[in-house]
Amino acid sequence: MNAKLLAVLVSKTQRVLRTPKFFEFRGKRNFLSLRGNKITMQRIINVSFLTPGFEVVNEGHIVVEDGRISDAADGFIAGEPYRDFLAVPGMINSHTHLGDAFAKGADFSGLSVNEAVGPKGLKWKLYENSTRRQRISAMRKTAGYMLSSGTTTFADFREFGNEGIAELRAALRGIAIKPVVLGRNCELSKCGGLGLNVDSLGQIQNNMKKIIAIHAGENTGEIEIALKYDPDVLIHFTKATEQEIETAARRGLSVVACPRSNMKLGAGKPPLRQMLDAGINAALGTDNAMINTPDMWCEMKFVFENFDVSPEEILRMATINGAKAFGLNAGAIEKGRFADIVFTDKPNSDAVYWLAEKCGAGNVKGVMVGGKLIIGDYGKSAPVIHGNRYI
Predict the structure, then answer these.
(1) Candidates 3.20.20.140, 3.60.20.30, 3.30.505.10, 3.40.50.720; correct CATH number of 91-325?
(2) Do 126 and 151 form a contact (C-beta atoms < 8 A)?
(3) CB–CB of 285/92 below 8 Å?
(4) Which range has highest mean pLDDT (37-51, 242-256, 361-375)?
């Protein structure tokens, strides 16, 4: 029985009872209740899940109400049987350039950061020969891939002002993934904040009350410049000095590392261990869609294999730390947070290690965004991904 039909049933019951204080209806998958004049749809999922402390509840349940998690606790109760899966927070890709997806497959091998994406880099030459339709189509396919592989939120640097933001909105129409839009040369009312390079910091206004995110650290001296503008988030941070790490930590800044992109463009290695030890809120991003597959599992595995960082720290960087960086009520399976949940295969042992190093897009069996199961099928253990293939 769908929500509209249940609402009609409640409405008719109200008229019959005249003064109902409480009404409830239990269906096969949903539980609907009326308290006063408020209709609440409740979903109860029996599943193993990852706690905010990164421990696994092997036999637990998650209750979803009005798009948020209202309870997550030990024990199976009456509800939907997702017992063959592991529920984890939706991944947060904290730095993307989704607009670059149209040039996926372009040869960037051997190019430096400046030669690839600098002011006179290959990226801009490719843009000159692209069309609006090509860019929107490529962004749409890429967003579909991100969602189907377990990313429920992404923070995107949008070039080309208001038109660039409009292209992204058009590409995401009908796709449930959540964007944090960081524009430049645009109306601030159209975005969540600014995503800038160090040569465009003049766009920052006093008391703008928006997120300020800055590319800084791929070249020497950029971080020193960026810190003068009181940013909220710094991207890359590969050339950070000890003093700059200490300053970022003292100010409570977040730093987004993009290790695969940095490696491919020869931009250095972000000092993740030093950042985490200093107390910096470090998150992960996949960077340019023309260079990297926007796959957070690949990013986590790369960090696991190339950095002195624990599996738990890696998972934090891919989930709750990204939420903290952008002020999102997501990133953990916890009461009160949005029900952005990914259902993966259930590993036989050490789930945290498996998620950080072994899990991949093919292990994602369902994706829930805001309490709605966008990808997946009720009670099935077979693969049911229907997302778009990455181009």
Answers:
(1) 3.20.20.140
(2) no
(3) no
(4) 242-256
| Bridge-based pairing state of the strands 287-288 and 91-97 | parallel
Domain boundaries, the chain: 3-89+332-375, 91-325
Which residue type occupies 238? T
Please write the tens of the pLDDT for every residue from 264-323: 999 999 999 999 999 999 999 999 999 999 999 999 999 999 999 999 999 999 999 999
Q: Which is it for strands 341-345 and 80-89: parallel, antiparallel or unpaired? A: antiparallel
| Rounded distance between C-alpha atoms, residue 249 and residue 146, angstroms | 30
Instruction: Kindly report, residue by residue over 113-122, the tens digit of the pLDDT.
Output: 889 988 888 9
- Alpha-carbon distance values, 290 to 128, 135, 137 (Å): 15, 11, 14
Number of CB atoms found within 10 A of residue 301's CB: 18
Strand partners, 234: 214, 255
Cα three-residue angle 52-56-60, rounded to 5 degrees: 95
Please enumerate in sequence order all residues whose Cβ is within 8 A of that of 173, keeping only pairs 6 or more positions apart, or say none. none
Tell me which fold the domain 3-89+332-375 belongs to.
Urease, subunit C; domain 1 (2.30.40)
Inter-CA distances, 175 with 79, 103, 139, 154, 246, Å: 27, 21, 11, 13, 40
How many residues appear in the chain? 391
Provide DSSP, 97-146. EGGGGGGTT---TT--HHHHHSTTSHHHHHHHT--HHHHHHHHHHHHHHH
Tokens 């996926």 — which residue? 104
Q: Find out whether 256 and 55 touch, Cβ atoms under 8 Å.
A: no
Instruction: Give the residue, 178 or 27, on which the prediction is more confident.
Output: 178
